[in-house]
Amino acid sequence: MTTTTTAGPAAARRRRRGDVQGSGRLAATLLSPTFIVLALVVGYPVIAAFRESLYQRGQGLDAQGFVVQGDKFVGLRNYTDIFTGPNSGAFWNAFWNTTFFTVVTVALETVLGVAMALVMHRAFRGRGFVRASILVPWAIPTVVSALLWRWVFQADGVANAVIGKQVLWTTEGFHAKIAVIIADTWKTAPFVGLLVLAGLQVIPREVHEAARVDGAGAWAGFWRITLPMVKPVLLVAVLFRLLDVLRMFDLPAVLIGLHKDSVETLTMIAYDEATNLRYGPAAAYATVLFVYVAVVAYAFVKLLGADIIGDMRQARTARPASAKKKPLTSARKVTT
Amino acid sequence: MASISTIARGVVAVVATVTLAAACGSGSKTKSAPTSQALTGRGPITLAQGKDTSGNVQHLIDVWNKAHPQETVRLIELPESADQQRQQMVQNAQTKSDAYTVLNLDVVNTAEFAANRWVTALPKDQFDLSKFLPAAVRTGEYRGALYAAPWKTDAGLLYYRKDLLQKAGISAPPKTWAEMQTDCGKIKGVGCYSGQFDKYEGLTCNFSEAVDSAGGEVVDDSGKPNVNTPQAKQGLDFLVQGFKSGMIPKEAITYEEEDARRAFEAGKLVFLRQWPYQWALSNKAAKVKGKFDVAPLPGLNGPGSPTLGGHNLAISSFAKNKATALDFIKYLTSPDTERANLLASSEAPTLAALYDEPTLQKKFPYLPTLKASLLNAKPRPQAVRYNDVTTAIQESVYAALTGKSTTDQALAELQSKLGPLTQQ
Predict the structure, then answer these.
(1) What is the CB neighbour count within 10 angstroms for residue A310?
(2) Are B357 and B198 in contact (CB under 8 A)?
(3) For B272, which of A112, B128, B242, B264 could close a Cys bridge (C-beta 3.0–4.6 Å)?
(4) What is the chain A residue with the closest CA to B394?
(5) How many Å apart are CA B184 and CA A330, to the nearest integer?
(6) Alpha-carbon distance B247 to B273, whole Å?
(7) A284: closest CA among A50, A74, A93?
(8) Nearest CA among B5, B11, B147 for reference residue B80
(9) What is the pTM of this model?
């Protein structure tokens, strides 16, 4: 044992240096199919969409009343039009709507999702039933749930019967936003709950028992032990939700309707431009949204997540290490 | 139902903006679309249209196929919503695909498809256009040329509760808006009037109807917007004041066709502006069965002008076997086929004479009323950028109905927005 550990680092270093080129090239060769597929499926559409966003399609008519064919290179005009053109109001409205929905629904879903996970984690009679019923909303396709909520929120629907007041939910106004938030939270809180539940289940029971022995109450146990230990999983769940909500389309479109300013999101504007054959501006909107999503994801990972992938990598390497705790410590002792 | 198709739209949305955009960027730089080519070639063709809900289109095709084994027609069913049908047809044209031969075009899309050369002009002299309802023929024309043969038509009617009118001692349905309001004053405990006022295509129909019925026009004969007029203001005011005074129930601002039908069938309304399709359905509804009738829509100073709906048949520019397609269109628009289609699907025909046939009138008692309405009917603005036009209309009218802007503001704004959109 002693000999191997002392000889180990030097030999490993030599081997590693020798391996770098050979295994690197091998790795590149082995990974190349993946990269090619990624370039085709992700890279090409992104670049093609960006290229398209620099063009505008002819909208003018010739003397006989036919549309003048052909695309025209307009540089960044589609982008400047988005931010400062005559329709910039619609863009900023959609931008704030999207951001507002993202912040509010993700916050609500995180709180509710964690609560659901804690309930589902408990051992009690009928636990399977509770777990299944909490997950039902997540299993329903968004459009179907949007239709269901549309019935709930219609003028003579359940929502008005419950609150005993006549609110026209699907008309313009803040109430339309609330309707979307309620429906979205109902649908996706279970997703957060499911991921957090998975995180809860890998927390060893001993940690909680030890805490209880040390006199920690329920609240301290949750705040100091449960939450930090599910944090990596929770952050992944929140990141997924963020990316999802930022490109929300079907729920407001079906529940409230297209062209309703109160709930119009960025994807809805992009869709609208594309339906009206303005592919250049549509691509520009899509690109702006793409950049926005990328920035949010990057900021999230940098500020809060502190490198999610890195954490996982560390966790993976740390686990076998801790399993072999004893021999390792003894080995280190010998080397030092 | 319309909303289900929004699903697919939602899914398509992001993909469409990226992929579609990419697809057309490379291909569309070459010019030379066919102008008016000869309709030649015989062989198998297709008919692209929305869902064949009655199953009768397939039946009509079967009859044709039996008689023309070398020139068979295959039915391609598109989604149920009008938006999505248009989108599929546009995509078919963008890729210059020959998959769709005959297109069952919504009346509002003729201008767009013609101006983009996605459909071929039809030989006017081969159709006896004088036999068709004149308004329906106009919906198939663009700049004087016929691009789509009128096949099915549609116009709004006034559904009214004849039992309630009788009880109040009113002998005839109202001819003017003022009469309607007076009638409502005599009937207590029931909502007065509704149409379709949610922010969607139905709102455009209801608004154009109100403007036309007050003697105004949304777009004039030369294609220029004309909503900054006293008549247009009176039309829009009828709706705005209706909401303010409670003549139109508040929740009607959320109504599409089916919501309005439910409200009428639940006995919540005396008068409803609705398409003819409701006739058969309401005659099965327990609460109003046999207690209602239809009349032409009321207007400001007399009978109103309903908005035209319906579908026309056009030939895709990129299709093969156009001669067969032309024959097939003639077959579908022939009196025998239109009569059979009316009997099987209760969809209104475009041939005027059918409305006067006693046997048909016996089965569809509303036919004479519908014909009177259709003769008065006005098409929605025929614009190449119709989608933008209707969006602008919905935006301004909805703002006026919800009290966000005054009638004058809304119409002035609409006038300035429609200007650049209707330049042709």
Answers:
(1) 11
(2) no
(3) B264
(4) A259
(5) 96
(6) 13
(7) A50
(8) B5
(9) 0.83
pLDDT digits (tens, 9 = 90+) for A247-264: 999 999 999 988 999 999
Rounded Cα gap, residues B352 and B192, in angstroms = 33
Q: Three-class SS of residue A256?
A: coil
Maximum distance among all alpha carbons in chain B?
69
* B positions 344-403 inside 8 Å of A (CB): 384-385, 387-388, 391, 394-395, 398, 402
> With the CA atoms of A216, A222, A224 and A228 taken in that order, what torsion angle do they form, in degrees rounded to the nearest 10?
150
Q: Which residues contact A65 (CB under 8 A, 6 or more apart)?
A: B114, B115, B142, B143, B384, B424
ipTM comes to: 0.80
Amino acid at A148: L
Q: What is the DSSP string of A20-58?
A: HHHHHHHHHHHHHHHHHHHIIIIIHHHHHHHHHTTEEE-
**pLDDT, tens digit, for every residue of B188-236?**
889 999 999 999 999 999 999 999 999 999 998 888 899 999 999 999 9
**Position of tokens 């909208």?**
A59
Q: Say which residue, B336 or A327, is predicted with more confidence.
A: B336
Looking at residue A134, its amino acid is I
Strand, helix or coil at B119? strand
Cβ contacts of A16 within 8 Å, gap of 6 or more: none
Instruction: Place B14 in a pLDDT band, splitting at 50, 70 and 90.
Output: very low
The CA distance from B210 to B234, in Å, is: 8
For B158, list phi and psi in degrees, rounded to 5.
-95, 110
Q: What is the DSSP letter of B157?
A: E
Find tokens 């069952």 and name the residue: B104
> How many inter-chain contacts (A to B, CB under 8 Å) are there?
156
**Which tokens belong to B267?**
């006995």
The two structure tokens encoding residue A221: 């146990």
> Nearest residue of B to residue A273 by CA position?
B17
Instruction: Give me the DSSP letters along A258-303.
Output: TT-GGG--HHHHHHHHHHTT-HHHHHHHHHHHHHHHHHHHHHHIII
pLDDT in tens, A271-313: 999 988 889 999 999 999 999 999 999 998 888 765 555 555 5
Contacts of B253 in chain A (CB under 8 A): 168, 171
Give the total residue count for chain A: 336
Q: Are B127 and B330 a contacting pair, CB within 8 Å? A: yes
Which of A249, A255, A266, A269 is the best residue to mutate to test the B interface, defined by the most B CB atoms within 10 Å of its own CB? A249
Task: Say which amino acid occupies B234.
Answer: Q
| Of residues A55, A250, A272, nearest to B25 (C-beta) | A55
Q: What is the pLDDT of residue A149?
A: 95
Q: Give percent of chain A with pLDDT exceeding 90.
A: 50
Q: CB neighbours of A175 closer than 8 A, spacing ≥ 6? A: A167, A168, A169
Say which amino acid occupies A257: G
